[in-house]
Structure formats: structure tokens, C-alpha cells
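Why do we care about 3D structure at all? Because function follows from shape, and shape follows, mostly, from sequence. That is the central idea of this module. The next example makes it concrete: a single protein chain, its amino acid sequence, and then its structure expressed as C-alpha cells.
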Amino acid sequence: MARLAGFAHGGKRRIPALALCCCLWFGLLWPGAAQARTLVDVFGRAVDVPDRVERLLALGSSMSFVTYLRAQDMAVGVEDMEKNVSTKPYIVINRQRVKNLPVVGKAGAVRIPNYEEIIRLRPHVIFIVSTDRAEPDLIQRKTGIPVLAVGYGITTFDQETFLQSIELTGKALNRTGQAQRLIQYIRALPGQLAYRPAAGQEATAYVGGLSYKGNQGIISTSANFLPLQLAGIRNVADGLGQSGHLFVNREFLLRADPPLLFLDGNGLPLIRDELTTASGYYERFTALRQGNVYTLLPNTSYFTNPEMLYANAFFLAKIAYPEAYPDLDPMAKADEIFTAFNGEALYPYYETHGYGFSRLILQNGKLTSKP
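And the structure:
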């Protein structure tokens, strides 16, 4: 009994020292982890995030938000997709920076994280873009690392969700000033496209080839498409009783026969291929016969490309209402937007790789670009 009593008494003296050692060890592994703030993400989840974040992971294209805040050097790993060639702006920007970083999982519609690698890399926070509220909870539970969900809106781009995500990322990374400057810049963009024609005089257009779970052909489009809305152009897909992405009937598209036809850069190769076997179908479009077909920067690559949406809106407005925007240079505006978002002018890259703004002419059964 005396021996047991002595053990208990000695234990009381040693436990505080042991606890202190554990706290010191934990603090070395997780700087800033002892103090945390509670942030609310786009799913309404309350997440405790360290006061000081110096190491991060960004899943599901959330690296775009990290790049907007010029914090990509904090990334300690990347998804496999982020080492491949892509039309996603942040992947283009970061392709050299991340080439030696370890891969933390498979990206895409079905994400497969490498939990052991994530834990080994010891990020202070994980960002994720997801359409499933349960996914960030699962990753947080399996890794013990705080996971913040950010996003662009589900099914269709939602500006308020997007801006909320920029603000949230800024708070988590202590870069609120950069976040607020970008938010103010974005909020000012619609006012620069204020021209609206008289009722019934609006230009009418269709946007085809929008990516959806991969690249798609001409029947892939979107109702409530932000670039058309910002430019004040009537969208022929808006009258179908749906919102967000949809596939239209090929005959519907012929009957609508939009005066202006815009094709997404990602879908253009598929449309060109289809033209070789269905030239008769395409030749029935008035816009194609009259040379009123144009290409857009890729609107979607591993979720939405917000900077492309805004840049495309200015190009759409210039084509639809040239007299209202005599001094607008869509290419220069695109580079201004790329720089505001990502810190670099990217339009020359996209133009060089065949994704720039251009007019398409049907010649000898082929679509030929005319910048």
C-alpha cells in the first residue's frame, strides 16, 4: 500500500511535466495549433483554424483561392491533376512552383485522398471545393486537421458564394487586405458593362461546348450564364425552365437558330471533330453561314474558372454591342482580370495554345479561326 501510495504521490508531481512536454512536442509539429479561431465555411460548418497558418493543402481546385491571395508557397502538396497540362488558370500559374511537391491524392469527380501522406505533410489547414458537405467532415475526421470548404456555387456559379470563399480564405491565411482588394475589384466589374439596349432590342446568343464532367460538344450549355447576363445578352437556353448546366436537344438548337453563337475553348476540338461527320447539321446555322461564331476562353476546368467568366463577359459585350464599347479591348481586359486574380497576365498563354478570343469561319467543311 505504501508503494502504491508513493506511486500515486509521485505521479501527481510528474503529470504536469509530462503534459508540458507533450504540449511542446505538439507545438513543434503544429505551430500556432494551441491557439485557434472559429471560422464558418460555405457549408455553414464551424471549423477551428490555427491563428498562424504556414502550411496548407488545397483540394478540389481550392488552390485557386490560395493563388488569388498569393499564398501558394504555403502549399506542402498537390493533387495529381495539378501537375498536368490544364486550362485552369491557377494550374498554369503554378506549374513550375509545384513540380517537386508530393502528390496527396487523385483529383476529379471521384476524389481519392492519400490520408497517410496528408498526415505526414502536417498542414495546418486543408481547403477543399466540394459538392458534398460530408466530404470535408470525412477528411477532417480521418486526418485530425481542420478542413475549410470554399466554392464557386453548386450547379452554377454564384458570385456571393465565390466572394465569401475569397474572404474566408483571407481570414484563414491572415491575408484579409488582399482578399478585400480582390473582392472590391470583382464587385466593380459589372458596372463596367452597364449598357442595356431598349426592351426587345437585346442581342440573342447561345453558348455551346461548356465543360461538364469533362469536355463536351455543342449541345452542352448553361442557363443563367453569368457572362451573358453581365453583357446584357439574351440567352436562348434561359427559356427551358432549367438553371445551371444542361444539354439541349439538337433540333431545339436549330429551331432557335441564335444570331450569335459562342463556343467554349475546351469544347471547340470536339465540335471541330463533329463537323467532319455532321457538316450538314452545322451548315444550317445562320450564325455559322454569316460568320457570327466566336470562341471563348474555357469557362470550366476542374470546376468553374471565375476569371474566365468575367473576361468572357467583356468579349461578349464587345461582339454584341460594338457601338456601346468603342474603346474596349477584350484581350487587354482579360489580362487585367488575370492579373487582378492571379498576379500574372495570362491571355498570351491561352492565345498561343489556341484558346484565345477569335472569330470562326466555315471553310471547306472546317472551322478556321480568324483572330
